[in-house]
Amino acid sequence: QVQLVESGGGLVQPGGSLRLACAASGISVSLNAMAWYRQAPGKQRELVARIFTGGSTNYADSVKDRFTISRDNAKNTVYLQMNSLKPEDTAVYYCHTSYRGYWGQGTQVTVSS
Questions:
Q1: What is the DSSP letter of 8?
Q2: Tens digits of per-residue pLDDT, 51-71?
Q3: Residues 43, 60: contact at Cβ < 8 Å?
Q4: Do residues 38 and 45 lie in contact, with contact meaning Cβ atoms separated by under 8 Å?
Q5: Cα dihedral value 45, 62, 93, 17, nearest 10
Q6: How many CB atoms within 10 Å of residue 86?
Q7: How much of the chain is helix, strand and coil, in % rounded to 5?
């Protein structure tokens, strides 16, 4: 059974940082493309960052140079390091795998003073 469990969300001030983690079970994060999506209230879910099996990455224009996606194969976990956070980054962040399109349950990120 595939499970993706996100953690690390919370409330942070503008300009602050957070690191999200997605712990996977039932699949290998090194053998599947993994991604972070986010959904803000009243908006569609959007791709934030993706890491491919070979290690290449891509990012939404809105987060380039601020967010970094990475993975730890030994821990079977994918991370999203988020720096210089802005109020418009406020959303529920979801982990996703290309393996049959499984989703995690999401973690709330709120950027506010």
A1: -
A2: 999 999 999 999 999 999 999
A3: no
A4: yes
A5: -170
A6: 13
A7: 5, 50, 50
